[in-house]
């Protein structure tokens, strides 16, 4: 099994993005910018491209993508001032960017915000009053409900003071949200975001290179069976069962249920490989539903405390229950990596408690949170880990 697990990583090295203009995370991009460019770390095939995205956050295209050298592709755009944009270089099933050997580039999301219109009217007195209350609401959420507030060693007084003028001068709730997101980005917390009018604004985007590539893995394993977008299976020559679970998101539940049934039906398999390398979390209960199939008795896999207005609660055990019926008792290899976080992190902790399971791969990302919503005076909501 060790040989197989390591073998999954032996393939052509997929291309990676090394530079974009605008850069991911830029918050004051010139709205007069007319060209977006993407540069890769190796020579690319010029047969296709994939700038993935859509809707109001996707830049208006004025000139179709073209290659200006062996590694750099550009696309002509028209941008609006004070606007949030997002696109992805390759994304899921859109894999147009490939190197000369046909290996798809790693997905690379790019989010940026254009600078405000210098001719925009200043905020009204009423807007300033509402904004001030919103700043107070935001600060209260951090001070009374953010579980990692003190662990991070951030000087929140100084941080809010540094951003006070920018927040107070916001001419709209949407602009306030973007500026508040910049303040909160200091925490580098993926479980902290803002929500307004049906739109979510993240405060932090991690930069990790997953130790996993779907096309590469699918080529290397026999009898590859794709079950929806989040689960795939393979049976190796010796009968070892391989199951990829790419997400524990609620929408993936029907696919995960099929994986659950397959594990139950495969107790005679000599070994199993559960691959969660691309998994960044979702519903922890879905993770438990899989992990319990390998478990013969209740096992505590984590403890947590919750932040409330009155302080922290007492520690609470998180327990993985035994399988209902017969559990799988053969050896299990869990493939993990830097993309793993949140509820997938919890899944790794569950599997680490099972004597027959071995975790193999790269270190996981390490983020958890259980975010709670807090309403601001301007109608926005901030979500902070509890």
Description:
- There is one protein chain.
- The protein is of the alpha+beta class and 386 residues long.
- The two termini are 39 Å apart.
- A six-stranded mixed beta sheet has the order 10-11-12-13-18-19. A four-stranded antiparallel beta sheet has the order 1-2-5-4, with no helix packed on it.
- Helix 2 (125-145) runs antiparallel to helix 3 and helix 7 (284-291) runs parallel beside helix 8 (342-352).
- It is built from eight helices and 21 strands.
- The model is unreliable at 1-11 (pLDDT under 50).
- 23% of the residues lie in helices and 26% in strands.
Features:
six-stranded mixed sheet; alpha+beta; disordered N terminus; 386 residues; four-stranded antiparallel sheet; 8 helices
Helix content: 10-25%
Coarse morphology: flat
Which regions contain 5 or more consecutive residues with pLDDT less than 50? Answer: 1-11
**Distance linking N and C termini:** 39 Å
The topology string of helices and strands comes to: HEEEEEEEHHHEEHEEEHEHEEEEEHEEE
SS-derived structural category: alpha+beta
Number of helical regions:
8
Q: How many beta strands in the DSSP annotation?
A: 21
β-strand percent reads 25-35%
How large is the radius of gyration? 23 Å
Q: Quick one: biggest sheet?
A: 6 strands, mixed
Mean pLDDT: 91
What is the topology, as strand order, of the major beta sheet?
A: 10-11-12-13-18-19
List the helices and strands and how they pair.
Elements (H helix, E strand, L loop, with lengths): L1 H6 L9 E5 L13 E6 L10 E2 L7 E8 L4 E7 L5 E6 L18 E6 L11 H21 L10 H13 L4 H12 L8 E4 L2 E4 L11 H7 L4 E3 L3 E5 L5 E5 L7 H12 L7 E4 L8 H8 L7 E6 L2 E2 L2 E2 L3 E5 L11 E5 L5 H11 L4 E5 L9 E5 L5 E5 L1
Parallel strand pairs: 12-13, 13-18, 18-19
Antiparallel strand pairs: 1-2, 2-5, 3-6, 4-5, 6-7, 8-9, 8-21, 10-11, 11-12, 14-17, 15-16, 20-21
Helix pairs in contact: 2-3, 3-4, 7-8
């Amino acid at each position: 099994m060790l040989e197989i697990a390591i073998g999954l990583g032996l393939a052509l090295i997929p291309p990676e993005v090394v530079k974009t203009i605008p850069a991911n995370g830029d918050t004051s991009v010139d709205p007069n910018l007319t060209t977006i460019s993407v540069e890769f770390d190796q020579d690319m095939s010029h047969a296709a491209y994939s700038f993935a995205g859509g809707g109001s956050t996707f830049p208006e295209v004025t000139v179709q993508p073209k290659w200006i050298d062996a590694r750099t592709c550009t696309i002509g755009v028209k941008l609006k001032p004070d606007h949030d944009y997002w696109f992805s270089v390759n994304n899921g099933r859109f894999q147009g960017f490939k190197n000369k050997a046909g290996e798809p580039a790693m997905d690379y999301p790019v989010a940026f915000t254009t600078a405000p219109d210098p001719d925009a009217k200043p905020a009204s007195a009423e807007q300033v009053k509402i904004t001030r209350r919103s700043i107070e609401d935001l600060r209260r959420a951090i001070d009374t409900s953010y579980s990692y507030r003190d662990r991070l060693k951030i000087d929140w007084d100084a941080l809010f003071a540094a951003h006070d003028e920018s927040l107070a001068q916001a001419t709209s709730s949407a602009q306030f949200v973007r500026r508040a997101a910049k303040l909160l980005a200091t925490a580098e917390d993926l479980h902290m975001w803002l929500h307004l009018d049906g739109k979510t604004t993240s405060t932090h985007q991690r930069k990790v290179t997953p130790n996993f590539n779907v096309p590469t893995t699918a080529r290397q394993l026999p009898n590859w069976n794709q079950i929806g977008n989040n689960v795939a299976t393979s049976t190796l020559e010796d009968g070892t069962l391989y199951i990829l679970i790419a997400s524990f998101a609620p929408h993936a539940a029907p696919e995960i249920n099929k994986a659950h049934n397959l594990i139950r039906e495969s107790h005679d398999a000599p070994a199993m490989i559960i691959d969660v390398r691309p998994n960044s979390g979702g519903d922890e209960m879905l993770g438990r539903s899989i992990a319990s199939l390998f478990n013969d008795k209740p096992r505590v896999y984590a403890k947590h405390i919750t932040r409330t207005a009155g302080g922290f609660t007492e520690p609470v055990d998180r327990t993985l229950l035994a399988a209902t019926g017969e559990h799988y008792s053969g050896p299990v290899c869990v493939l993990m990596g830097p993309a793993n976080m949140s509820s997938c992190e919890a899944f790794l902790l569950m599997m680490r408690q099972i004597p027959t399971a071995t975790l193999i791969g790269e270190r996981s990302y390490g983020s958890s949170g259980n975010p709670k919503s807090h309403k601001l005076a301007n109608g926005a909501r901030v979500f902070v880990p509890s």
